[in-house]
Amino acid sequence: MPIQQTLNTGKVPVNIWTQDIAPEAIAQLLNVANLPIIHRSIAAMPDVHVGIGATVGSVIPTKSAIIPSAVGVDIGCGMNAVRLSLKAEDLPDNLAKLRSAIESAVPVGFDQHEWSKVQGSQQARTGRKLKQRLDQLAQKHPSLIKMQRQFEHTWLCQLGTLGGGNHFIELCIDENKNVWIMLHSGSRGIGNVMGRYFIAAAQKDMERHHIHLPDKDLGYLSEGSALFNDYVEAVEWAQDYALMNRSEMMRLIIEAIQPRLPSFKLAEEAINCHHNYVSQETHFGERLFITRKGAISARQGELGIIPGSMGVKSYIVRGLGNPDSYCSCSHGAGRRMSRLEAKRRFNRFDLIAQTEGVECRKDGKVIDEIPAAYKNIDEVMQNQTDLVEIVYTLKQVLCVKG
């Protein structure tokens, strides 16, 4: 569907691809629309909902500046999916042992790989490619080191780990009965440290230049300043780390399930896409910084992943290159309620009912991820038929949560 509503009370319009948007999210979008650095218009995807500072599900084009809080603290968070040469009938009837194997191979929540096992491992060899860049950044900003315990080791030990919240690993079946592995994670603790550090730095920069903002979390860094250049380096590093983290997890998952399944190959190239990130792009003839906070790139022909909530369905999509959305689409179903509200309204029996047929945790600690806490993924997809076309529909049969 085309743009469903436009807000015109800011300095630039806000184009919204849904009618289902909370007043608080509208207020956030208008705050961003009133910043002097925004170019042409803001795009709000059909999964749009309230975030910290900037709205989740928004595409923010800025001219000669970046808003660190719009990129967020899980820099480079995104998706990875690959199709296997297996069919649904190749999976065992009981998937509990497969879930256990994955959970043993990939640390979840606050857990990470042990340093004694990381040294000399594939993780260490992979991470070595990033170490020199990180060391240079830390030399310029030594406070980064103080913000994370065992800074030197932690980011390497977290390479190939899931984290918590809405991060997940899933086995899915598409409409042709093909088996897929799909996962969602980002730049882990190191990305969080970098995000928090530069958000605070941007706020101080606004105070130093006496720039008054509608929300202090919308502090921005101007192109040409040393702080801006360092933030770009940090963002690029964290985005590369997030890609590497997802690739490493995928490797560990495949190694874990191979002995427990018939022989298989990777039948299709892996799709690995960010949905919390910033990139330099050209739109409407202008060189811009495009921040996608809970949105993915959907250029003409580009493959992407739009996950639904735990226990529902997800989609592999192909971009249609809609210029009004800055060639973007939604990053998922989008939350309908806060985690606190979900815990207040639902219990583990609701979770069991809503995840029927899915091998997953069904305890009280993951109630905040219950499907009813999210928007209807079918409605979200219907609202962006001008942004993407569906290539595959995936149904989850196994889900690992942090």
Notes on the structure:
The chain is α+β, with helices and mostly antiparallel strands. The protein is 33% helix and 25% strand. A seven-stranded antiparallel β-sheet has the order 10-6-8-7-17-15-14. It has a six-stranded mixed β-sheet with strand order 1-2-3-4-12-11. A two-stranded antiparallel sheet has the order 5-9. A hairpin with a 2-residue loop joins strand 11 (276-283) and strand 12. Helix 3 (96-105) packs across helix 9, helix 5 (122-140) runs antiparallel to helix 9 (226-257) and helix 8 (188-208) packs antiparallel against helix 9. The chain starts with a strand and ends with a strand. The relative contact order is 0.18.
| Strand order in the sheet with the most strands | 10-6-8-7-17-15-14
- Output the structural class: alpha+beta
| Major beta sheet summary | 7 strands, antiparallel
What is the percentage of strand-forming residues? Answer: 15-25%
Whole-angstrom Rg: 21 Å
Number of helices, where a helix is a run of at least 4 consecutive DSSP H or I residues = 12
Low-confidence stretches: none
Distance between the termini: 35 Å
- Global outline: globular
Total beta-strand segments: 17
What is the average per-residue confidence, as pLDDT, rounded to a whole number?
95
